Amino acid sequence: MEINKRLLDTSYDLILSIGQVVPHEVVGMANYTKNILVGCGGKDTINRSHILGAVFGMERIMGKDHSPVRKVFDYAQEHFLNSLPLVYILTVTTASHDNVRIEGVFAGNSRQVFEAAVELSREKNLIWLDEPIKKAVVYLDPREFKSTWLGNKAIYRTRMAMADGGELIILAPGVRKFGEDDGIDRLIRKYGYKGRENTLKKYNENADLRENPSAAAHLIHGSSDGRFTITYAVKHLTREEVEGVGFRYTPYEEAERKYKPEGITDGYVEYGGERYFYISNPALGLWAVKGK
């Protein structure tokens, strides 16, 4: 485990870690020790935790407190972080009509504080559906989502609800690149979102991917493994770029006219002779089918 050495400065009387508890694709539920060990973590900690979660399987982790990655973080808290003057301030929020509502605030330095936040988040942020979604349309606010590295939350958070053979359309007016930095962007362009087994094969064969396990994990997370189609509707990337990484492409303006009528709200929509499930912010929820 590696963290920023500034956190070990003994002159601090108090260190506040503030963040939102929501379902997360790598650790199960975001925040608590993740803020310190990943948010302020070293490269190896970030990389190894990401590949650990990807190999174990995203759909076995998301929306759950306990996972192999969280077990590693719990060990680090117990053995390395307990001596720090850390206090966690954890929020649980929901969104409706672009208005974010704070459902709960939990503060303290024990795991019980996190567990209480997890319980509320599972109640507020997990959306259980009676049947799989055949067609989903997810909107990515351009102020927040400028890369597929972040924008693929549209895939992570809906995949447990998507029907086999279904269609996911991502309205991404602000997405203009794949990685958040140039190095990761190059890796995504080179290897693409082309399935778990393909990515693990490339990982074993190529040093540049082995040196970036978090990128390999991201490529696994961003593929549906052929189970459903993924279309990115963008303004700032070309068809060749989008299709080159394994997604389908459509122009943003065309998709916006077709799938984002004025006044649209989350849930099933009947519009233009089609029925689809609309999500305005994938970061604030996890959609799944009851019984799965």
Report on the architecture of this protein.
This protein is α/β, with parallel strands linked by helices. Helices cover 35% and strands 27% of the residues. It is built from 12 helices and 13 strands. A 6-stranded mixed β-sheet has the order 10-9-8-7-12-11. The protein has a 3-stranded mixed β-sheet with strand order 1-4-5, with helices on one face. The longest helix has 15 residues. It is globular, with a radius of gyration of 19 Å. The protein starts with 14 loop residues before the first strand and ends with a strand. 39% of the residues are buried. The model has no long low-confidence stretch (mean pLDDT 94).
Topology readout:
Layout: E1 15-20, E2 23-24, E3 28-29, H1 33-37, H2 43-56, H3 68-81, E4 86-96, E5 99-108, H4 111-125, E6 126-129, E7 133-139, H5 148-151, H6 153-156, E8 162-172, H7 182-191, H8 196-205, H9 207-210, H10 213-221, E9 229-234, H11 239-244, E10 248-251, H12 252-259, E11 267-271, E12 274-279, E13 286-289
Parallel strand pairs: 1-4, 6-13, 7-8, 7-12, 8-9, 9-10
Antiparallel strand pairs: 2-3, 4-5, 11-12
